[in-house]
Amino acid sequence: MTQRLAGAPSSARQSTVRTTNLGLVLRTVCAASGPLSRADVAAVTGVTRATAARLVDELVAGGLLDEVEREVLPRRGRPATPLVPGARFAALGLQADAGLLAARVVDLRGRVVAERVAPGDLRGSDPAATMATLGALTADVLAGLPADLCLVGAGLALPGVVDAEAGVLLRAPNLGWSDLSPAGLLAPFVPAGLDVVPGNEADLAARTVAEEAPGQAGPYRDFVYLSGQIGIGGAVVLGGRVTGSSGWAGEVGHVCVDPDGPPCSCGSTGCLELYAGRHALLRAAGLPLDAPPGDLVRLAAAGEPAAVAALGTGAWALGVALAGVVNVVGIPTVVLGGHLAELADLLRPALEEHLASRVLSARWRRPRVVSVPGPPAAGASGAALQALDGVLADPARLLG
Amino acid sequence: MTQRLAGAPSSARQSTVRTTNLGLVLRTVCAASGPLSRADVAAVTGVTRATAARLVDELVAGGLLDEVEREVLPRRGRPATPLVPGARFAALGLQADAGLLAARVVDLRGRVVAERVAPGDLRGSDPAATMATLGALTADVLAGLPADLCLVGAGLALPGVVDAEAGVLLRAPNLGWSDLSPAGLLAPFVPAGLDVVPGNEADLAARTVAEEAPGQAGPYRDFVYLSGQIGIGGAVVLGGRVTGSSGWAGEVGHVCVDPDGPPCSCGSTGCLELYAGRHALLRAAGLPLDAPPGDLVRLAAAGEPAAVAALGTGAWALGVALAGVVNVVGIPTVVLGGHLAELADLLRPALEEHLASRVLSARWRRPRVVSVPGPPAAGASGAALQALDGVLADPARLLG
DNA sequence: GATCTTTTGTTCTGTCTCGAAACATAAGGC
DNA sequence: GCCTTATGTTTCGAGACAGAACAAAAGATC
Q1: What are phi and psi of A32, to 5 degrees?
Q2: How many angstroms separate the CA atoms of B107 and A44, rounded?
Q3: Does B55 touch chain A (CB under 8 A)?
Q4: How far is A171 from chain B (nearest CA, A)?
Q5: Beta strand B65-67 with B83-85: parallel, antiparallel or unpaired?
Q6: A293-318 in b/e burial notation, b at 16+ Cβ within 10 A?
Q7: For A92, which of A50, A239, A311, B334 is 20 to 30 Å away at the CA?
Q8: pLDDT at A122
Q9: B238 touches chain A (CB under 8 A)
Q10: Which of residues 106-135 of B touch strand C (CB under 7 A)?
């Protein structure tokens, strides 16, 4: 089986074999938890040592793999040459959210090479001004990079509906932006030829759960992801891949929880966000809307009635909405991210109970709710990972 | 690009090229609306005529392609040899639903070679007895097949939660069955070695929309499918492929439409099925539960208040549930199948309006509701198509 | 009716890539 | 110092496709 190379079917030839196997070797090294030798690569991929060596040599020559110093470990036989993903290649991940701006550079090993995160309230801000600020942040980050680092792509996580192919943010309710083409606004700040691909924040944050470093599987591979920012975004991950219509999807926050509920700014009624969004929870708990996330946790843990009730309502609403999602996509694992991750321990018991009673297949696969701490601005990391995906899918492109 | 061959990555070798290209050629011929010549195959796939001819020759020798008589069409040049998918290969599709049993044999050209459909009320029936009846139906169908027909697989569409890998029906609420392994019960009636793979009815019926004949794209490739049987099943189709956790998914009928609604037999409250299921609609319209589907259409078209109200409620409930699905998966096309297809014209105006107001991305991609008539027991056809998929994915397997 | 043109299908050679097996290398073990 | 073991390299052969020339079968033209 050749690895999936999505898109229009086209014929295979000898060079396809090479391309496929180069990708396979690179992904194998990336997926491994530690350095691999050429012989390890041969064993894992199933090619002969001769072939593995040929492929590795080519990737090393192109900088996609690095040979590192051998650890002195006492073992018989000729010592192996440890291989790791090349440090020369990296991607730029950006994020603009209602609460922060972030620019981060992640290399093929998954290391953060450089980053800048700037909190701030960007609700209702001017898109052009904000993009300029983000651009300055980006320029700052890029200026500090090693000269030999090769940026292979860039992405921008945005909290809204994005048409990734057209590169357009269609609508971001919590920012108050719509019909925006961010690549153009950022162009003055990034190297020429590096185009910034926008993507949905939840989709991209979900990637960081499915994939901890480029090609390296995370703890969960099939799950429904909920990204609690000001709003609530979501993503469905199947086999480690975010599914859905690329950026159009994931508006879990606007799933209807109660058709008789209050009207939402989106035009519908009783949306999940009105019960479990950050502002809804804080308001119900009697806290100011700019209260730090930990406050609600502390109040609820202390048994403060309004806070407990707020979380109860939130868990109920999440239960109704997520049960619908689980019934439709059939994945019983829910991963909470963003501010919902901090509330996970308090939400879990009630939420799991709601899910168990509303999900048809619960008897066989009981839904479970987990959380991942994740870095701040996970969307930026996800955007970088997505850009690096192209390298893993077809490294031959970079070998000229 | 080689076609997706899902599963664990493994290395490519020369034989992979051959396997990939054999599949590509077969799929190309299947996807074409009319017969192709070797030269056409070369042009479409991008291989040289020499290679296309070699591949075609091998497929013809194996019976996967047939050379047919040339139509006398006046054209210059050496006359081409028209190629069509081989008629020797076919698959068996079965369906057991609350309202019918069906056995159907579909060949690689998508033609129904033989079928038997038996209506009947199977709610609460004994699984073993019903499977025996289906088995007899199947044996009957198989007995009438041409001797040289080669059955490459078999599938069984069931209205419930199925674990396809284990081959187990976990729960079918409307049949009243659970924890059933149908393959064993059917084994006496089918040829040895042909194992019957169970699948979710809605998933399989959705296939018939995405794929009209093996490898031949249907009118829609990205849509949310709703299968109105006694219950309401659903499937999400992306790029022509049913997504979701294979048989666990698609329980749209049990998406919560109103958490304060009446209790459902599934344990939840206010499920879609309680408002838009066949029985719910008939009851609300004041019709007997076994009324033929057309009755409701006639009454509503005539303006009978109870019938109009029933459809209004149904459209509202479908709107709430489907808006949630569309918000999560981002696909704005909804295809109605089963009994909902017959009601589509009456439901569409209200349903599309509900969707437009509750779907966040409606402003850019207005949700539309369409219907496909489809054959009775579409699930059976889908099951056969799924079995034939294996042939298209890897025809080399059948070439010895 | 003979010849030209056009399109299809076939044959041949060269190139690419991998597998298999022998060989070379660099260590530890005795 | 020699044996064992594991890694990495070299050599040869086989399979598959590309490209180009060739053969075949028709219509078009004079």
Answers
A1: -70, 150
A2: 39
A3: no
A4: 8
A5: antiparallel
A6: beebbebbeeebeebbebbebbbbbb
A7: A239
A8: 92
A9: yes
A10: none
Is the Cα dihedral A289, A291, A293, A298 positive or negative?
negative
Q: Which nucleotides of D are covered by protein (CB under 7 A)?
A: 4-11, 14-21, 23-28
B90-208+378-399 and B14-85 share a CATH fold: no
Using a CB–CB cutoff of 8 Å, tell me whether A1 touches chain B: yes
Nearest C-alpha in A relative to B250: A328
The domain over range A89-208+378-399 is classified in CATH as 1.20.140.10: no
Yes or no: say if A344 and A337 are a contact pair by the CB < 8 Å rule.
Answer: no
The closest of B46, B56, B83 to A12, measured between CA atoms, is B46
CA distance B111 to chain A (A): 25
Are residues A386 and A12 in contact, defined by beta-carbon separation less than 8 angstroms?
no
Question: Residue B75 is encoded by which pair of tokens?
Answer: 């054209």
CATH class of A14-85: mainly alpha
- Give CA angle at A303 (A297, A308), nearest 5°: 65
The DSSP output letter for A285 is T
Please give the model's pTM, rounded to 2 decimal places.
0.91
Q: How far is B192 from chain A (nearest CA, A)?
A: 28
Alpha carbon A121 to its chain's center: 22
Please state the separation of Cα B350 from the chain's center in Å: 27
Q: How far is the CA of B44 from the C1' of D28 (A)?
A: 28
> Is A152 an interface residue toward B (CB < 8 Å)?
no
**A101 neighbors A92 (Cβ within 8 angstroms):** no
Tell me chain A's radius of gyration from C-alpha atoms.
23
Q: A220-371: what fold?
A: Nucleotidyltransferase; domain 5 (3.30.420)
Pairwise CB contact (< 8 Å): B46 & A245? no
Residue nearest to nucleotide C10 (CA to C1'): B50
DSSP-derived letter for residue B267 is S
Q: Is B5 (CB) below 7 Å from strand C?
A: no
Domain boundaries, chain A: 14-85, 89-208+378-399, 220-371
B15 CB and strand D closer than 7 A: yes
CATH annotation of B90-208+378-399: 3.30.420.40
CA–CA separation, A275 vs A380, rounded Å? Answer: 27
What residues in A contact B259, CB-CB < 8 Å?
257-258, 316, 320
Please check whether strand D approaches the CB of A241 to within 7 Å: no
Q: Which nucleotide is nearest to B75 (CA to C1')?
A: D27
Which of B161, B357, B365 is nearest residue A268 as measured by Cβ atoms?
A: B357
Any chain B CB within 8 A of the CB of A299?
Answer: no
Closest to B361 (Cβ–Cβ): which among A12, A248, A268?
A248
List the pLDDT tens digit at each of the 400 positions of chain A. 222 323 346 899 999 999 999 999 999 999 999 999 999 999 999 999 999 999 999 999 999 999 998 876 778 889 999 999 999 999 999 999 988 999 999 999 999 999 999 999 898 999 999 999 999 999 999 999 999 999 999 999 999 889 888 999 988 888 999 999 999 999 999 999 999 999 999 999 999 999 999 999 999 999 999 998 888 999 999 999 998 766 666 789 999 999 999 999 888 999 999 999 999 999 999 999 888 878 999 999 999 999 999 999 999 999 999 999 998 888 999 999 988 999 999 999 999 999 999 998 888 889 999 998 778 899 999 999 999 999 999 999 998 7
Continuous H helices in chain A: 14-31, 38-45, 49-61, 127-143, 182-186, 201-210, 273-276, 278-284, 293-301, 305-329, 339-342, 344-358, 378-393
> From the CA of B182, how many Å to the nearest CA of chain A?
18
- Size (chain A), residues: 400
- Asked if residue A15 keeps its beta carbon closer than 7 A to nucleic acid strand D, the reply is no
